[in-house]
Write a structure and sequence with these properties.
By secondary structure, the protein is of the alpha/beta class. The chain is 39% helix and 23% strand.
């Protein structure tokens, strides 16, 4: 299958390459040509005049089935939100609920320009099945909490996910090991996970320092910050590590992360909504730490629109440091694309529009009042575009949405399923 995208304003996200008017040729799953004009025999032509072609967004931290709990537990502190609402509701979820909740999140992500996401949850085989069917790209992780009696079963499920799904769905699925957080993972089982990840050459996805309460708990129990706790257990010695949140990191914590393989996923909307705080992203970037963006689950963030995260990320740093020059439009767009791809170790495949990379991209309709005139394209993309402006979403060369119509998800059936399931899940709480 050969598809020609014609007449778009192309933003490749390659360093030093400005936007330009041109064409883009997709051949099979890959980008075959990107230049000002292409003449070729093709199977399909997408007329993209008045649109921007850019890499699909990378949502580097998600809990996709939580879409079933959107708006169910708002305006609560994080620990109350988790213990009083989220955990009891999740205990009522069946594997089929997980499947439909994940598909609901994917529908929202596709509609708002996300092509890749990193997920941590339970019943991950159901999420993997949804990814395979819908056509997105995903890094999947079975969350591991070691404060309960069934931790052996959880490890079996985590390893089963790795064995069964790594490289599946035409290579769109990758996997990690997912110890939940320092405060839910005592030293011995966490050491076992680290050793296992080293043996199997797997990356690790873990929450870190999301709240002041977490930092206080770790200080009282171990006399260490969460970062120091992970550092002394050897998490950063050899492994590629994806750290979600990193809100409450002091200067010494950031110095310990300097030079790490992997980096931090900033989730500004969720952190704001739960009152967690503002992550010191500028300081991390100044120390050379890779930073990507994520939404967290819809149970906390409510929205999975990565363009909202882009706005929040840059505005928060500007106001926190009192400097409007911090985290420019171009820089924050990189966080949402190529830098997120680095965190998921797929930057050789996605994150920029380059010949030989996978054809993961979006088309944004700029023919709208809030996107005109175009003086500085990156500024409009970072500060004015919303997910509703995305016209077409393509992953692995396959069109998942065209002219705002989802092609791999039956929306009416999806909405019927999630409405019925959400009522049952929360009914007994």
């Amino acid at each position: 299958m050969r598809t020609l995208i014609k007449g778009a304003m192309i933003l490749t996200m390659e360093e030093g390459v400005p936007p330009f008017q041109g064409d883009l040729l997709i051949e099979g799953t890959q980008i075959a040509e990107v230049k000002e004009s292409i003449t070729a025999d093709v199977d399909d032509v997408i007329e993209a005049e008045g649109m921007v072609a850019m890499p699909g967004l990378v949502n580097a931290h998600q809990h996709s089935p939580m879409s079933l709990l959107r708006g169910f537990s708002d305006d609560l502190k994080l620990m109350d939100w988790l213990e009083q609402k989220m955990l009891p509701a999740e205990a009522n979820m069946t594997p089929e609920d997980i499947y439909w909740g994940a598909q609901l999140s994917m529908a929202e992500m596709i509609r708002s320009g996300t092509t890749t996401f990193a997920d941590m949850y339970l019943h991950m085989d159901q999420i993997a099945l949804a990814v395979e069917e819908v056509g997105m790209r995903a890094s999947l992780t079975r969350g591991l909490i070691f404060l309960e009696e069934d931790q052996g079963r959880r490890m079996e499920e985590a390893l089963d996910l790795v064995e069964r799904w790594s490289g599946q769905a035409e290579g769109r699925i990758t996997t990690m090991l997912g110890p939940h957080a320092p405060f839910t993972c005592p030293p011995e089982p966490l050491r076992e996970v680290i050793l296992l990840a080293q043996q199997k050459k797997l990356p690790i996805h873990i929450h870190l320092a999301e709240t002041k309460e977490e930092v206080q708990k770790m200080r009282e129990k171990y006399n260490k910050t969460p970062t120091e706790y992970l550092y002394h257990l050897g998490l950063f010695d050899q492994l590629h590590v994806l750290l979600a949140h990193g809100v409450h990191l002091h200067h010494r914590d950031i110095q310990r992360l300097k030079g790490m393989r992997g980096g931090v996923v900033h989730n500004p909307v969720s952190n704001l909504k739960l009152g967690c705080g503002i992550a010191p992203i500028k300081e991390m970037l100044d120390q050379g730490i890779t930073v990507g963006l994520g939404t967290d689950g819809a149970g906390s963030a409510t929205t999975l629109d990565m363009f909202e995260e882009i706005k929040a990320a840059t505005w928060l740093q500007k106001v926190d440091y009192g400097d409007p020059t911090i985290l420019s439009a171009q820089e924050v767009l990189r966080l949402a694309t190529i830098e997120g791809a680095k965190l998921l170790q797929i930057d050789d495949q996605v994150g920029t529009l380059q010949v030989g990379k996978k054809a993961d991209m979006i088309l944004i309709d700029m023919k709208k009042p809030h996107l005109q005139p175009i003086h500085h394209l990156e500024s409009l993309l970072a500060y004015s575009v919303t997910g509703a402006d995305v016209d077409t979403t393509i992953v692995n060369g396959r069109i998942l949405m065209k002219h705002r119509r989802l092609l791999t998800i039956k929306e009416e059936e999806l909405y019927r399923q999630v409405t019925e399931r959400a009522k049952r899940i929360v009914f007994g709480i």
